[in-house]
Amino acid sequence: MDSRDACNRLKNTQQADDRKKHKHKADARTSLRTLVVHGDSHFFMLPDEERLIWGGDFRWRRSDGLLPSCEDFDWLVDYLVEEANTAADDKTVGDALLALSAMPNLRSSTKRHSYITALIRCIDPARPPRVRHAALRAIADAGEELASMTNESIPQSVDATLLNKLSCAILTVVCPNHSQDQTVPCSTSFQWRGGACYFRLIFALAQSDEWRERLTRDGHFEHCIVLAKHLTQTWLAGCYLAGVFAYINSSDKLLPLDPTQKRWQAFIRKGWEGARYGVYTDVDVGALSALVVATRHKLRSWDFSVPNEELTELTACVYRALESMQSTKDSLVLFGLDQVLFDAALSSVQGLYDDLRRMIENPNALQTDNGSLQS
Q1: Whether the Cβ atoms of residue 198 and residue 140 lie closer than 8 Å to each other
Q2: Does residue 269 belong to any structural domain of this protein?
Q3: Where in this protein does the record put region Disordered (predicted)?
């Protein structure tokens, strides 16, 4: 059954007609659940599997072969808003959030405010983990769009107060007891999968001056430093966290010299060691871009006057990652990887490798031009 038709019939049913309303609501639940089951393009996973939240691919195309527009999801936003504002069926709300991941943005301009408000409600600590985590993924997927919302360019339907509420709400997902004890780490399960999603979001937001102020004020940067002490090393989470640390180090609150600086170095080193094995998703490509940002920032404080085997090893790791990207590009794009995103990441890795080679061959030339390490 078509999910849109089921939700529209539910929306258009008279409030007094309880029998029809109950039937259409059941149809909507069934169709959304089926949509999520068939949403992943690589593996068959049941809707309630946790890994579906963090790794499911729900993209689809219209019958004419074109990608859907924001307006194609307005009906689903309406359904989510209605469910989030009532005593909702949390299972169906989770399904709706995952289905909305097919379009990673904040919806059409007319729905943006209500959608962000619904996401904040879905993150509420009273909600079950599946709903809260699915909402976090939806927010992370729209991270770049959120970062672009500044006081000068903020959309008419959104205001700074709403974004402030969103920032505070996000922290409750990764740190439910934040107001009680900021040193308590997340569960192991969330660290493995949700941590990478959270760091991906924070990395995207940290690129905006205004969002960096929010992240500092609301405790996100502080919490990232806490998580670095407890996080089980995974390639994806480590790359994004390394990128976040670059922006923390650029802010007025520097990273503690020890041991967090050492953890940052370890994330960078292990990130490049793992990058040689390839990137396979758009999220992986984004992690590699974060790793480039972190590496360039770290190179600004490199001691050029001392021969350093670590620099040579780093250059070799970057080269192996570059080779891997070049050799797998065509096949990855063929299987759906975003070519524009991949080409941008490939260019940034190539540029980093070129600079590293110049550092080894003629370190004095780069000491006087740190700008070459910042692009």
Answers
A1: yes
A2: yes
A3: 1-26
**Residue in 36, 54, 373 with CA at minimum distance from that of residue 194:** 54
Domain boundary among 176, 197, 215: 176
Q: Are 268 and 251 in contact (CB under 8 A)?
A: no
Contact 273, 231 (CB under 8 A): no
Q: Model-level pTM?
A: 0.86
- Show which of 176, 191, 210 is a domain's final residue: 176
278 pLDDT tier (thresholds 50, 70, 90): confident
**Domain containing residue 367:** 239-375
Q: In the predicted model, what is the mean pLDDT of the chain?
A: 80
- Cβ atoms 289, 348 nearer than 8 A: yes
Distance (Å) of CA 130 to CA 122, 276, 277? 10, 33, 31
Same domain, 159 and 243: no
149 and 276 inside one domain:
no
Question: Half-sphere exposure (CA, 13 Å, Cβ side) for 127?
Answer: 30
DSSP state of 307: -
Same domain, 161 and 243: no
d(CA 144, CA 142): 6
